[in-house]
Amino acid sequence: MGVPRGVYKRYAPAALSTAREERGQLGGSGDFEADIALCEKQTIEPLFRKYLPRTGKILEAGAGRGRWVFYLRRKGYDVVGLELARSDVEAAKAFDPRVPLELGDVLRCPYADRSIAAVISLGVMEHFEEGPQAALAEVRRILRPGGLLLVTVPTRDFVRAVLFNRMKTAENLFRKIRGTPLEFEEYRYSRRQFTSLLREAGFEILEKAPDDFLPPLNMGLYTDSRFLRNPGRKWELNTAGNLINDTLGNISPWLVCSGTLWVCRA
Questions:
Q1: 3-state DSSP call for residue 96?
Q2: What secondary structure does DSSP assign to 128-193, as a single string?
Q3: Between vectors from CA 201 to CA 197 and to CA 203, what angle results, nearest 5°?
Q4: Which helix (H) or strand (E) holds 83?
Q5: How far apart, in whole angstroms, are the C-alpha atoms of residue 35 and residue 38?
Q6: Is the peptide bond before 216 cis (omega within 30 degrees of 0)?
Q7: Domain residues for 55?
Q8: pLDDT tens digit string along 106-126?
Q9: Radius of gyration (C-alpha) of the chain in whole angstroms
Q10: Which of 118, 111, 113, 81 is nearest to 98 (CA)?
């Protein structure tokens, strides 16, 4: 149990850090239709259509405001959501009272053993400071034999390893010197590290893919540096950001992607 050695552990100022139950969710704009439309612009969307079963219940564990629940249900999938943040559930219900998004903890899913055909977990597993093992075990409990897990975590890509993680470490050292309280925010695993955790939890890896938005939108660089953002345009980069994204992305999308999607079989 625990976290592999060498995993990058990211901290944030306690006063600014997102509430624990809301971490990992793609920040909602308040415009539900715009947020749902982002699903089609995400590089992992074709993998959802490729692997998610057309029959059987699909659970998004840690669904936020349910943008993927809304999106996939419109595509004909039998998807339900579970979310710990009451404010997100209430916002989704205000948008559509019929949405099957319920308040609950991914560590204690209210589903019977072997009752779920597939589980989606996007930007959740990295937020357990003790490691993702308990959450993965709960996923295994509710999945049918041969059921699928589609899971993303932010990964330690090339730009993060050589630049942004080091900048964040230096920034936090300066904050500590000034006496600013910090608290754990997330882990950034390498693909090898998280692959090992999934295999140890009893999952067979079927496919891996970069997780980000399709150009001109961007998630990784936009999240890591406010100096690369296009002011006033959510998920768009400025000229310098686009130059970095285009140059490195043309070499390999793995160099600048926000995270990784693993498609796994229990």
A1: coil
A2: -TT-SHHHHHHHHHHEEEEEEEEEEEEB--HHIIIIIHHHHHHHHHHHHHTT--EEEEEEEB-HHH
A3: 95
A4: strand 79-83
A5: 5
A6: yes
A7: 8-213+259-265
A8: 999 999 999 999 999 999 999
A9: 18
A10: 81
Q: Which two tokens stand for residue 101?
A: 């998004």
- CATH number of the structural domain spanning residue 197: 3.40.50.150
Rounded Cα distance between 138 and 89, Å, is 21
Residue in the structure block whose two tokens are 């995270």 = 259
* First-to-last C-alpha distance (Å) of the chain: 19
Asked whether residue 173 is assigned to any structural domain, the reply reads yes
pLDDT surpasses 80 at 1:
no
Residue 231 covered by a domain? no
pLDDT tens profile 239-263: 999 999 999 999 999 999 999 999 9
153 within domain boundaries: yes
Taking the complete model, does pTM exceed 0.85, yes or no?
Answer: yes
User: For residue 55, what are its two tokens?
Assistant: 């029959």
Structural domains in the chain (count): 1
The reply to whether 174 falls in a domain is yes
Q: What are phi and psi of 60, to 5 degrees?
A: -95, 110
Q: Which of 104, 99, 153 is nearest to 126 (CA)?
A: 153
